[in-house]
Write a structure and sequence with these properties.
Strand 1 and strand 2 form a beta hairpin. The protein has two domains: about 120 residues, no CATH class; about 90 residues, von Hippel-Lindau disease tumour suppressor,  beta domain (Immunoglobulin-like, Sandwich). The longest helix is centred in the middle third of the chain and has 31 residues. It is built from three helices and eleven strands. It is of the alpha+beta class. The chain is elongated and about 80 Å long. About 30% of the residues lie in helices and about 20% in strands.
């Protein structure tokens, strides 16, 4: 390993000792400093915490409760992983080195430094993906206004000719499941995915393209017209933090 044999801090006294596995699973190491017969346990092992982290991260990615994009999900999980690695592996190792007054291992110090740097940068980009209401950062996405559909699909303006390429990001704050549709210049409607409440979805688009939001029975509710810049479309368009959802009887 990094310095001949893998040495980890004793869970009782915190000093570095040889590591040959977890007590109770075949390990026979006894701490040479405090005499503990169980210096490394499964409960105290960082591996258990990392296992829990991956399970929670997987569940969060599948549910996606705040509608993160794939990039946002990656930055959030990777940043948290790097900081967890530093806190539960690198920091205890540094503390044990200081206690024993031993020089640090250059490679390990480099890994520790990278964990902090990559963790901080990833969480910075993750924070830029969301704000207090779970929406895209206004520094990268401009809110595009929507319109309530009053007279069915015939009352919705069709898409204009292909304009400048852009992206549009929808976020469902309606309280019900909705469906997104493209509405081309020929009047053809094309489904583009469903959104459960508090979920987001990004799609490539172009300036002047009409997007229609319906319920799951394909009844039109709102329409949006994409702009030339990356846009954030909130459903419903008049949503505010104090506004009750559409299915709220109050």
């Amino acid at each position: 390993m990094m310095d001949g044999n893998l040495r980890l801090p004793c869970e009782k006294c915190g000093k570095l000792i040889d590591y040959d596995g977890v007590s109770g699973a075949g390990a026979k190491t006894v701490c040479e400093h405090c005499g503990s017969k169980k210096p490394h346990t499964l409960r105290g092992s960082p591996l258990l915490l990392f296992l829990c982290f991956f399970i929670v991260a997987l569940a969060f990615a599948l549910i996606n409760p705040i509608g993160l994009s794939e990039d946002g999900m990656f930055f959030g999980c990777f940043g948290a992983f790097c900081l967890l690695l530093w806190l539960k592996v690198c920091l205890p190792y540094h503390i044990a080195r200081l206690k024993d007054k031993l020089p640090g291992v250059p490679f390990f110090c480099f890994v520790s430094f990278l964990s902090l740097v990559f963790g901080g940068i990833s969480l910075f980009f993750f924070a830029a993906e969301i704000n207090i209401y779970g929406l895209r950062s206004t520094t990268t996405h401009h809110t595009v206004g929507g319109h309530k559909v009053e007279g069915g699909f015939d009352s919705i303006p069709k898409s204009e000719s292909n304009g400048k390429a852009s992206v549009i990001w929808f976020f469902n704050k309606s309280g019900i499941s909705i469906r997104l549709h493209r509405f081309d210049k020929e009047g053809t409607i094309q489904p583009e995915g469903d959104l459960v409440p508090s979920q987001g979805l990004e799609r490539d688009t172009f300036e002047g393209e009409t997007w229609v939001v319906t319920d799951l029975d394909d009844t039109p509710l709102y329409y949006y017209i994409a702009g030339s810049k990356a846009s954030a479309a909130i459903v419903p368009p008049d949503w505010s933090p104090t506004m009750p959802p559409l299915n709220d009887p109050s």
